[in-house]
Automatic annotation (TrEMBL):
Name of this protein: Integral membrane protein
InterPro entries tied to this protein: AB_hydrolase_fold
Keywords: Membrane, Transmembrane, Transmembrane helix
Superkingdom as given in the UniProt entry: Bacteria
Record flagged with keyword Flavoprotein: no
Transmembrane segments: 130-150, 195-214, 282-303, 315-336, 357-374, 394-413, 425-447, 467-490, 534-557, 577-600
Region of interest (Disordered), residue spans: 1-28, 223-262, 790-818
Listed Low complexity bias regions: 237-246
Length: 818
């Protein structure tokens, strides 16, 4: 069914573009529809139950109505209307039940977002590189934290404490063969062999993460974008639109010190992160295996260093620890390496590094198992597994990285201030802090629940490290802060809704009033403004989390006791508060973990729940994996090249006349694909966005890539751009382009609902649409008609500063500004 693709590609990459009227097809126009979050069906997008796939596969494809399948061969039938096409990409994010497992990778996804939240910079080359380095290091600590949490459960709680304690082992008979008492000194009952056997659990977790990253890497990062040297276009080669030569750059992102008006999203290699992800995957896999090897080998080496211990094992222990330390240094060095250039498709791969680094780490892991499992008479397990302060070290490093990241982000923001940037340029550090907190809660929560399950009486084993108990105890105060913020936002929303009531009836003059309907519309408008309050909420929660986390770390280090025990002997109020926080925090962690697992299980079985989770992934996985290779894959590395190829082949085969129409997240994909086009092809494309978060969300949270200068340059480079939004829409908003960029982009806010009360045309109350169904508004068809009328087969329409002159429309009207 790939008729359209074959015809559009008939010109080939080496064939010249057809002249106007040469093949009779230059007058045909195309409207390429791109849906938003949550996805939809081709039938719904094209308003026809009979659709055919013209190009693509079962994951992402372009569809047409059955009657339009051969539109290129009948251009005379489309003189007054465009050929509608629908690009459906929802299966990239919510295609099957296994995507629910990606919830476990949530901290990795969040820290990857922090990488892209860098503020715009001017002349800060080293500072930009330092920002990317700090985020990658924070991502590495999350991998170590997750694996350390698995080691805490499997090695410390199960193999060391429970199997080594008679009361706990008797309660769990499946541990009998590991217990020295119940197995009567069996072969597996020695501490080292118990640890070596339990190490299979965190090692399997590391292998699973490696496999998932490799599989998605082959499916997503291996999708090559259109190369401007050999793809459809105007033959301008691989030089980017800004005319700069290919210079080295930091990781992923804008070239340090370059003109920020030319966003990095327009570079040929931006959506091709194959080399970088492979290198990071090797480093993080090695870090995971080295963490497990250290958890097995360090207790044995500590026992061998006792006075009178065997000299050979002591020497081997020192050599093993030195090898593990050297491996850790190599891993950090690989993570700190600068990334590849995005000015061309970097098809190279660091094959030796990608292959050898995980293999060396695996070899050290096996050696640690052999060393730890060696027979050591007199060695017994008591208390917690040595090395439980590992969590304290990880938390300390994460806190220092977040603080350093905040300093760097502040310096970058000062070099090019942006009043609309979220949290004054500190959005990245705030989100990185939340990623670290999520990782700590997930790993600590599992350890707390497993400890409670193993030790029903709470007296047989010591339980998880003290720091994890302190971290659980600070959750109730954090929730109090969140509830107070929610109450303040609710009060602000209620006041705003009351103020909106006076404006609603004036927006619908001549219609009968309805107090109940007025309240509903006013509340919808007020609730839509909560999106703009999100930076304040994130800033306060992140700062509170940092302060409470620092307090938990200090409390654990100074007292080495749980909060309730540390507060014993103080004032009764203090002791009672500590006991309450400790008990409530443990309960909340358990409840959250249960809800987390239940939600994931429901999403696996329930298609509607799976679609809801897919919406979260639509927003969170737009960006390439630049900071963490185990994050969920970037669907845009498939979707953006798909759209770019479709637009490039159409403009080449027909001479132009293309309107790409994007709703919500689809508008972000549409803009990203337009940036990827050759400048001459970009001039033949018009952009229609509606319900778009381009400025309201992406421009504020990702200013280096979607800031005012970048959006302004896109407006200047496409033939025309029109944007529709509603005041009731919590996601979409105006573009707010700076200065005087020429024809207006934003149309005045659309009425919602279309009619306030009952009218002759609408006898039943019209619904409040909010973020959905923009096509139901007559303004949508009007703007689409104007854009198509402006686009001519020969040359783009004139662009002038201020209000553009009227251009005759297809029906004899005028096109207005655009």
């Amino acid at each position: 069914m790939e008729q359209s693709q074959q015809r559009a590609g008939a010109g080939g990459q080496d064939a010249p573009a057809p002249r106007d009227g040469e093949d009779g097809r230059s007058g045909t126009a195309l409207e390429l529809l791109v849906h938003g979050v949550g996805g939809t069906t081709p039938a719904e997008m094209l308003d026809d139950p009979r659709t055919v796939r013209v190009t693509g596969d079962h994951i992402a494809a372009v569809f047409r109505r059955a009657e339009d399948a051969d539109a290129e061969s009948r251009p005379e039938d489309y003189r007054g209307r465009p050929v509608p096409e629908a690009y459906v990409w929802c299966n990239l994010t919510s295609g099957n039940g296994t995507r629910a497992l990606w919830l476990l990778l949530l901290p990795f996804m969040v820290v990857n977002l922090a990488h892209w939240m860098r503020p715009s910079a001017r002349g800060r080359t080293r500072t930009v590189r330092l920002y990317g380095l700090l985020v990658r290091l924070a991502g590495l600590t999350l991998t170590v934290l997750l694996v350390a949490g698995a080691c805490e459960v499997a090695l410390d709680l199960v193999a060391w404490q429970c199997a080594g304690t008679r009361a706990c082992a008797e309660r769990h008979s499946w541990l009998g063969f590991l217990s020295p008492v119940m197995s009567d000194g069996g072969w597996w009952s020695t501490p080292g062999r118990r640890l070596a056997l339990a190490a299979a659990v965190p090692a399997a977790l590391a292998g699973l993460l490696w496999y998932l990253s490799l599989r998605t890497w082959r499916a997503y990062e291996s999708q090559q974008p259109m190369d401007r040297e050999d793809g459809p276009g105007d033959g301008q080669g691989a030089a980017p639109a800004d005319g700069h030569a290919g210079a080295p750059e930091e990781g992923r992102g804008t070239v340090p010190g370059e003109d920020p008006a030319h966003t990095a999203l327009g570079r040929p290699g931006f959506w091709y992160g194959r080399r970088l992800v492979a290198r990071l995957r090797a480093a993080h896999t090695a870090a995971a295996l080295l963490t497990v090897a250290a958890a097995v080998g360090a207790p044995a080496a500590r026992f061998d260093r006792r006075p009178g211990g065997p000299a050979l094992l002591d020497t081997l222990g020192w050599l093993l620890m030195a090898a593990l330390a050297a491996g850790a240094v190599v891993v950090v060095a690989v993570v700190c390496r600068r990334g590849r250039s995005e000015r061309h498709l970097d098809r190279e791969l660091d094959r030796r590094l990608v292959r050898h680094l995980p293999l060396v780490a695996l070899a050290l892991f096996v050696l640690a198992l052999l060393y730890g499992g060696w027979s050591r008479p007199g060695w017994s397990s008591a208390g917690r597994l040595p090395g439980d302060m590992t969590f304290g070290g990880i938390v300390l490093v994460q806190g220092l990285l977040v603080v350093a990241l905040a300093v760097v982000a502040h310096l970058l923001h000062r070099s090019r201030p942006d009043a609309r940037a979220a949290i004054r340029g500190l959005g990245g550090p705030a989100v990185a802090m939340l990623a670290c907190a999520l990782g700590g809660v997930m790993s600590g929560g599992v350890a707390q629940r497993v400890s409670d399950w193993l030790d029903g009486t709470g007296t047989s084993i010591d339980g998880p490290p003290v720091l994890l108990t302190w971290q659980a105890s600070v959750i109730p105060p954090l929730l109090v802060v969140v509830l107070l913020l929610c109450a303040a936002l609710a009060r602000h929303t209620w006041r705003l809704a009351r103020a909106e009531r006076d404006d609603i009836e004036s927006d619908h003059p001549g219609e009968a009033g309805d107090p109940g309907r007025t309240r509903r519309i006013a509340l919808t408008r007020a609730l839509a403004t909560l999106t703009d309050r999100a930076p304040l909420l994130v800033a306060i929660v992140s700062a509170t989390t940092l302060l409470l986390g620092a307090g938990a770390l200090v409390g654990a280090l100074t007292t080495d006791r749980a909060p309730a025990d540390a507060a014993r002997g103080t004032y009764a109020v203090v002791h009672g508060a500590a006991e309450t926080a400790q008990a409530l925090g443990s309960w909340l962690i358990g409840l959250g973990f249960i809800l987390f697992v239940t939600w994931g299980r429901r999403a696996y079985k329930d298609a509607s729940a799976r679609r809801t989770i897919g919406i979260l992934w639509d927003v969170g996985t737009f960006w390439p994996r630049a900071a963490h290779p185990f994050a969920p894959p970037c669907y845009a590395e498939r979707a953006v090249p798909d759209l770019t190829w479709r637009m490039a082949t159409w403009t080449r085969a027909t001479g132009g006349r293309l309107v790409i129409s994007g709703h919500s997240q689809g508008s972000v994909l549409a803009a990203s694909a337009a940036w990827q086009l050759e400048p001459s092809a970009r001039k033949r494309v018009a952009l229609l966005t509606y319900g778009s978060p381009l400025e309201r969300l992406y421009g504020r949270w990702f200013p280096a890539h979607f800031g005012p200068a970048a959006l302004g340059s896109l407006h200047e480079e496409v033939d025309c751009w029109r944007n529709l939004y509603r005041t009731t829409d919590p996601i979409g908003g105006p573009m707010r382009l700076p200065g005087d960029p020429g024809p207006d982009v934003d149309r005045a806010p659309l009425k919602d609902p279309l009619t306030y009360g009952r009218t002759e045309l609408h006898p039943l109350p019209a619904p409040i649409l909010g973020h959905s169904d923009y096509q139901a508004d007559p303004a949508f068809a009007e703007e689409r008609r104007r854009l198509l009328a402006r686009l001519r087969p020969d040359v783009p329409g004139p662009r002038q500063t201020g209000r553009a002159p009227s251009v005759p429309a297809a029906d004899g009207g005028t096109t207005g500004n655009c």
